[in-house]
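[job 0417] fold request received: AraC family transcriptional regulator
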Amino acid sequence: MENKMITQPPILAYIGKISDKPNWSFPSHKHDDLSEIIYIFGGEGEFRIDGKPFTAQKGDMLIYNKGVLHEERSSSVQPLKAFYCGVSNLKIEGFPDCFVLPTGVSPHIERNKYSDKVETLFSMIFEESTIQAQGHKAISENFLTSIILLIQRMVQLDNINPTKSDTAVLALQIKEYLDKNYHKHLTLNEIAREFHMNPYYLSHVFNDMYNDSPINYLISRRMGEGKRLLINTNMKVREIASLLGYENPNYFTRIFTKTMGESPLQFKRSETNERLDMNGKT
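[job 0417] inference complete; emitting structure tokens
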């Protein structure tokens, strides 16, 4: 990948940090209005990006282009330590709007000679966003532009090749159908009828590829979208429940609490305390 010109500089939507949370996880979700950059400065995490699994550790980066499904989980043995930020407004020559990476390039960048520079820049952005001194927004976004330029160098340095789909076309088609219809409370038989096949065989194909059942995946997707909405909107729990297909908000709360280990309101409070937006709010 040759270096591409940034024709419209990025806006930093938010900056956050995860540290020493062995049970931390975020189910499958996506951002339709921004891309996200993750830098790991300690520990280890497991990630699934657009259906593909990755294990990342100190010095590695994960890039989620706008609209790409992803999920994250900290290692319980070596808890994940990571900076993350949301990137909007970005335009790079030849890339779709707001994409940090060109399509087809691996979203996992392993540690290389530029990693320490990226970590320093992330630390400075987090510090600027925390202190909120005069000019912090402009300074932070200049640092963010530098990170994006370094990412281009990293891709070029590591000669990262385009990812290629494997032979599990059917599993991918099932996943795409579930991603499109996650808000519907489908049964396995209903999903199987859509693909004109035996439900047990369909479940086997999906599980073999994604190590999960179709129904568990649907629940995980709904919880992931629920988390995203709790963080990024002012929607009430009952509104989120309704959007995700739950007529009874109390049932949604029970499922969320059982799956995530804390209630929607507890999650929103704890996550909000650790994330800074560029208006200085926490």
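[job 0417] notes: Confidence is low (pLDDT under 50) at residues 160-167. The chain has two domains: 6-158, 169-274.
[job 0417] exit 0
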